[in-house]
Design goal:
Blueprint: E1 4-9, E2 15-18, H1 23-32, E3 39-43, H2 49-60, E4 64-68, E5 71-75, H3 83-89, H4 99-106, E6 108-112, H5 125-133, E7 136-141, E8 144-149, E9 156-158, H6 164-175, E10 180-184, H7 190-201, E11 205-207, E12 213-217, E13 225-228, H8 233-246, E14 250-253, H9 261-270, E15 273-276, E16 280-284, E17 293-295, H10 307-314, E18 320-324, H11 335-340, E19 344-348, E20 351-355, E21 364-366, H12 370-382, E22 385-390, H13 392-396, H14 402-408, E23 412-416
Parallel strand pairs: 2-14, 3-13, 9-10, 17-18, 21-22
Antiparallel strand pairs: 1-22, 1-23, 3-5, 4-5, 6-8, 7-8, 10-12, 11-12, 14-16, 15-16, 18-20, 19-20
The protein binds uridine-diphosphate-N-acetylglucosamine (UD1).
């Protein structure tokens, strides 16, 4: 039976929360381990459903995977394409990150095309165009993509949009290609820098990661490496917004403030007090809350993965706030759940207009995707009484030990298999 969260809202959050390793950094890092037959050691990997699925795909491909706590050791001595890969690849879009490494190692691979999902159609044309420039060939067959490549050769790869996944796939293939690849209009996210760090440790020469032009000098003999994953800026942002919404003082440990600049700026503009320390942040309520105008965009602009959580917070900020989503074409489905809890939100095209109400009301709501689920959890923290959130498996994809961390901050939250269970 599907799990639900029961959250008793209306009290403040207080205490310390330690931020886990980044999900979005871990997925390409784990995929990159396939580029070598040597051992790769990853530390600080979060325990999440998406990571479990990635591990199942790697094991299904024949890699030896040893997972202990937050450390994962992978050795991909010999690889082969199997049904296991196809089974799990369908479940998550990030499986497409295996394309670059598998082209390098196998020269030929067949992957299911990632379908549409709850936030938009999410095509993969930029991945394919970039990898084609390096010499790969693609054929579509009944929902599958058959990819093959002889020797990959470095070249100039201009991207028409700074796609995170496409930049990562191209970087991984280029790391093992012959010669130099220059990615123009590359994504600049911190997760890209983390991948570049790993590829450099493995013997490639990557420069410019974190800027819009990345140069990759390939090495056909990549070797093993050890790497610690960066902290999850989206998880950190979610706890900051939760603290701002529920009030109280929350101390975040293992967090890189620079990765959260756009988020910190917006929270301060809203009136929240934030103190920045060395790998730590303290979030405290301000005297008065102000409405905001948020426009999402590729890093370093405001992250699309935190806009639903901000919408929950802004639902109770007096005045009119707007959120304009420029990254995904359909990322306002979550507003239905917030409306059920009394939020006044209207969506017009790519902009949501939020008129602050005095208080939210508890309700039975459903998480429609990962960050939508996080928005509902934040709304539940603010609604005095018991809110029931179904679709918890979405949250399991991206928030490590959510109930444990919220409980340690004083939240009354429980996970139940059916409606009958009590808090
Ligand atoms: C990654 C993150 C996701 C985040 C997103 C944007 C991971 C595992 N996921 O997703 O949490 O929300 O970045 O910050 O890291 N696009 C194309 N063609 C392509 C590729 C992308 O049109 O070939 C479009 C997408 O449909 C979307 C936009 O570009 O509208 C951004 O996508 P992209 O940056 O690729 O995001 P992901 O890597 O899928």
């Amino acid at each position: 039976m599907e799990d639900k969260y029961l959250i008793e809202g209306g009290s403040t959050l207080n205490g310390t929360v330690c931020i886990s390793g980044s999900k979005n950094a871990s997925l390409p890092l784990l995929a990159a381990s396939l580029l070598t037959a040597d051992k790769c050691i990853f530390k600080g990997v979060p325990h999440l459903l998406d990571i479990d699925n990635m591990i199942k795909m790697l094991s299904g491909l024949g890699a030896q995977v040893n997972h202990q706590g937050s450390q994962i050791v992978i050795q991909a001595r010999e690889l082969r394409e199997t049904g296991m890969l196809h089974l799990y690849a369908r479940k998550m879009r990030a499986s497409f990150l295996l394309l670059g490494p598998l082209l390098v190692r196998l020269g030929e691979v067949c992957l299911p095309l990632p379908g549409g999902c709850a936030i938009g159609s999410r095509p993969v044309d930029l991945h394919l165009k970039g990898l084609s420039s390096l010499g790969a060939r693609f054929q579509m067959e009944n929902g599958y993509i058959r990819a093959s490549a002889g020797e990959l050769r470095g070249c100039e790869v201009p991207l028409s949009y700074p796609s995170v996944g496409a930049t990562e796939n191209i970087m991984m293939a280029a790391a093992a290609a012959q010669g130099k690849t220059t990615i123009i209009n590359a994504a600049m996210e911190p997760e890209i820098v983390d991948l570049a760090d790993l590829l450099n440790k493995m013997g490639a020469r990557v420069t410019g990661a974190g800027s819009s032009v990345i140069e990759v000098e390939g090495n056909r003999e990549l070797h093993g490496a050890a790497h610690t994953v960066i902290p999850d800026r989206i998880e950190a942002g979610t706890y900051m917004i939760a603290a701002a919404a529920a009030g109280g003082q929350v101390h975040l440990e293992r967090v890189i403030a620079e990765h959260l600049r756009a988020v910190i700026d917006k929270l301060r503009e809203a009136g929240i007090r934030i103190e920045e320390g060395n790998n730590e942040l303290l979030v405290r309520p301000g005297r008065k809350m102000n409405p905001l105008k948020i426009i999402t965009g590729p890093y370093p602009a405001f992250p699309t993965d935190l806009q639903p959580q901000f919408a929950a917070l802004l639902s109770v900020v007096p005045g009119e706030s707007t959120i304009t989503e420029t990254v995904f074409e359909n990322r306002f489905l979550y507003t239905k759940g917030l409306q059920q809890m009394g939020a006044q939100i209207t969506v017009d095209g790519r902009t949501a207009c939020i008129r602050g109400v005095e208080s939210l009301i508890p309700a039975q709501v459903e998480a429609t995707d990962l960050r939508a689920g996080a928005a509902l959890v934040i709304a539940a923290l603010m609604a005095p009484g018991r809110t029931e959130i179904s679709g918890v498996y979405h949250l399991d994809r991206g928030y490590e030990n959510l109930e444990g961390k919220l409980t340690s901050l004083g939240v009354k939250i429980s996970r139940v298999a059916d409606q009958a269970a009590n808090l």
